[in-house]
């Protein structure tokens, strides 16, 4: 006899197993290439430097080339595309802490789209809080153009090793509004 917990755990395990298989299949597509073989050897040898310079850096150069071609006059947007999961996860976490978990991903993606539009077109970020549905709009933090741009700039400096502007932005979000993400679950 299986319990609901056993069924749920089996389902999650199956999903995670499928994701792992998809990742392995994706690697198999390039695994026999010289770059793929070299990357695997570097990992097996514990050589982070060879892995980075032989596999990650060339891939990053392709991404940077694509962005330079597609957005030659919007270089500030390159970081947003290159590190979108980093930006989104920090935005989501900030919304969870300040506003709760509900719709935090929608809010993060709304902010990212508005930020991209600003970077590419120069149109300032301005949300319409008078529309019928506003679940996807920030309610307590990152409501203004200036705060959104400052937070984006702070995330970029954090990514490259300088946490000071990011820490300053977190303090700006008013400590009493911030919640521990574990409490918001």
Spatial shape: globular
By helix and strand content, what is the structural category?
mainly alpha
Distance between the termini: 30 Å
Mean pLDDT: 87
Percent helix: 55-70%
Q: Can you write the helix and strand succession as a string?
A: HHHHHHHH
The total tally of domains equals: 2
The protein's oligomeric status is single chain
Would you count the extended β strands for me? 0
Q: State which percent range the strand residues make up.
A: under 5%
Largest sheet: none
Low-confidence segments, given as residue ranges, are none
- The helix count comes to 8
Radius of gyration from the alpha-carbon trace, in angstroms: 21 Å
Q: What would a concise description of this structure say?
A:
By secondary structure, this protein is mainly α. It has helices spanning 4-31, 34-45, 48-70, 76-82, 84-99, 104-121, 145-159, 164-172.
Topology of helices and strands:
Blueprint: H1 4-31, H2 34-45, H3 48-70, H4 76-82, H5 84-99, H6 104-121, H7 145-159, H8 164-172
Helix pairs in contact: 2-3, 5-6, 7-8
Q: Which terms summarize this structure?
A:
185 residues; mainly alpha; 2 domains; globular
Can you describe this structure?
The protein is built from 8 helices and no strands. α2 packs across α3 (48-70) and α5 (84-99) crosses α6. It is mainly α and 185 residues long. It has 2 domains: 4-73, no CATH class; 79-177, no CATH class.
């Amino acid at each position: 006899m299986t319990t609901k917990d056993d069924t749920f755990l089996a389902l999650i395990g199956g999903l995670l197993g499928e994701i792992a298989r998809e990742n392995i299949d994706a690697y198999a597509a390039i695994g026999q290439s010289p770059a793929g073989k070299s990357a695997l050897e570097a990992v097996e040898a514990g050589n982070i430097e060879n892995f980075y310079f032989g596999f990650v850096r060339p891939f990053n150069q392709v991404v940077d080339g694509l962005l330079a071609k597609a957005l030659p006059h919007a270089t500030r947007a390159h970081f947003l595309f290159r590190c979108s999961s980093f930006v989104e996860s920090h935005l989501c976490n900030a919304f969870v802490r300040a506003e709760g978990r509900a719709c935090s991903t929608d809010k993060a993606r709304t902010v990212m789209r508005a930020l991209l539009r600003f970077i590419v077109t120069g149109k300032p970020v301005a949300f319409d809080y008078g529309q019928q549905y506003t679940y996807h709009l920030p309610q307590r933090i990152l409501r203004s153009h200036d705060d959104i741009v400052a937070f984006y700039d702070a995330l970029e400096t954090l990514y490259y090793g300088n946490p000071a502007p990011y820490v300053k932005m977190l303090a700006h979000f008013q400590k009493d509004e911030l919640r521990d993400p574990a409490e918001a679950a």
